[in-house]
Amino acid sequence: MTAIPLGVPRRLVEFTLDGEEVRAVEGATILDACRAAGKEVPTLCQGDTLTPRNACRLCVVEVAGSRTLVPACSRRAEPGMEVRTGTERVRHSRKVVLELLASSVDLSTTPLVAEWVKKYEAKPDRFGPDAARLDEEPRVDNELYVRDYGKCVLCYKCVDACGDQWQNTFAISVSGRGFDARIAVEHDAPLTDSACVYCGNCIEVCPTGALSFKSEFDMRAAGTWDESGQTETTTVCAYCGVGCNLTLHVQDNEIVKVTSPHNNPVTHGNLCIKGRFGYQHVQNRG
User: Fold this and answer.
1) DSSP assignment of 241-261
2) Does residue 3 lie in a domain region?
């Protein structure tokens, strides 16, 4: 009989979350514990397949004894800690962050942001029409995906996905400093002249639609994009023998984009150019 190796047992830590005693697996973050307890904590930069960057600061919570609010996405749950997710201080911080982001970036294609703005009574308009915006036209320089830096919140998820955490292509990086910081390829060149291999893993992790399938970009521009009318079917990529899972997003009997399940043990949401973009032959009915 073949022995089945078992993982190392992990202890549970007990702490207080909004006045209630909860338990979390040792090593889990406060955000993990909040989600397990059904507590809604907003976040943009947190990625379930990436190391936390603490960039957006939307997920901050109050921890007893801490001088500052702490990011729930990276702070580990510790025995005996007292965490509060909805204090006035926390709500005010999230409100201001939402106002700053929404006043300077187009968040129209960012899921849940409209609900958060309403929930925290954020008023992005209070900064007036002179709030700094990039006001740059979307970059359409290839037939696969579009870069719209006017929607970028500098969460760095695309940089990490393209870098040493996943793809190891290093085509994307941060250019400039301070207010001039932005995501760019080398020498800010067209994508076709960069080191990009068009795996699309940066699109997979982008939370705002700053990176999007060209098919989605064109349909949104034409007013035909309808997520409520789309179906999702997960299947196995047929291009090679690796066994990557594909989720086909279908609208009006046409594949409009392809994603990959993040909990898949083979690829964890990552694909190659063929798996993510090579679906047109399925719809060639000629």
Assistant:
1) SS--EEEEEEETTEEEEEE--
2) no
Residue 246 lies in a domain: yes
Q: pLDDT tens across 19-58, in order?
A: 999 999 999 999 999 999 999 999 999 988 899 988 999 9
The Cα–Cα gap between 192 and 74 comes to 35
| Number of structural domains the chain divides into | 2
Assign residue 32 the CATH number of its domain.
3.10.20.740
Phi, psi dihedrals of residue 15, rounded to the nearest 5°:
-155, 175
Give pLDDT, residue 265.
86
CA angle 3, 7, 10 (to 5 degrees): 150
Q: Which residues of the chain have pLDDT under 70?
A: 1-9, 285-286
CA distances from 269 to 64, 200, 237, 247, 262 (A): 36, 10, 13, 10, 4
